[in-house]
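Section 5.1 Outputs to date
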Amino acid sequence: MSSQVRLQLWPRARCLFDEPVQVKVAGLRSNQVVTMKARSTDERGRLFKSSAIYRADETGEVDLNRDPSLSGSYIGVEPMGLLWSLSPEILHKLFTKTKALIPHVVKISVYEEGEEGQMLAEVTNERFLIADGVSRVPVSEGNIRGVLFTPPGEGPFPAVLDLCTFVSETRACLLANKGFVVLTVAMFNDKPRDIKEFHLDLYQEAIDYLLKQPKVGSKGVGVLSRSKGGDVALALAAFVPGIEAIVWINGCSGSSVYPLFYKKHQILSQLSLDISKAIPTESGASIIKHVIEDPLAEKNKGSLVPVQKVKGRLLFVASGDDLNWDSKGYMDEMVERLKRHGKNNFESVYYPLAGHLLEPPYYPFCPSSFHIMTPFPVLWGGEPKAHIAAEVDLWEKIQEFFKTHLSCDPAKSTANL
């Protein structure tokens, strides 16, 4: 390494996962061209890498907040580009980050231009999921299997149930950092193909558990959902009391793939899949947007979630380039149905160029990976830059939505104690 070249992260090299950092290089020659690189290993031991070419200014400095990448994993001014463009060495792999106690570690380095360029400097960015003072408690009570995150302090705090697709603590922990008591429960276990039906009773149990927590002050809970969790969240709000606010992200308007039961009775039939409608692409991944049945078809009316029965507040979020299914079409139909019933308890957000997998900010962008319901990888959609910008914007909207619609009663928290 060159002792003259300095690579720094501002305001600090250790930060929370959803916080941006400013990458700056000093001590280069005037107008020197360099290669910036990043690499990280996910929880499954898979290596992800990114790189971009930059030209220093006349003072020998590169500032990713100011300077454009000339080529590489991304082009243009992208302050966090080295992180969100991290890509796997093997195609169709999703960056796995599920455990709250393990930081996301990224090595960022600067090299002389060229294939055999010498490394000039390197720094480590440690990105923590869990903030100081936030408690993490695994929950195995009754039928509930999940993890509870509670902010520091006496509260009272609003409560949120996070319906993640598979076991993951990422979103729940980051939300707890913002002042919410969050219980994360996975939609699917390690053997999703063994599942034949879904039961709302399990999630009602989780809601009751949340409301009994001593630091919870909200009279009801919020539900955060994406994909399959979306139709379950809507059904919860329509059939189960105690839900005040629902975030539905790129979900379905009908009960997708599985019938839905409540109190031992089937309340919604399922929308089936026709895998033969998948569209293969040259990448080896397929587009499956149209493999699921139309919930508006006459034979499928029994699958539609009666969103007009929801009493809580609804935040619909849809991506225009969702290649998993027609989330924009589902959102539009539900909005029109609510309007026909004289409802105004909803708001909607549309990201035209985003794809299906809307994650917390600065998560490595995933264009394709294997899908729970198919024997082949699928395309998720999204123009990378627009998708990442949507994630940053949505993360703020989610927090504001829950803060606005999950009011806390200080007396209730005291009573729980």
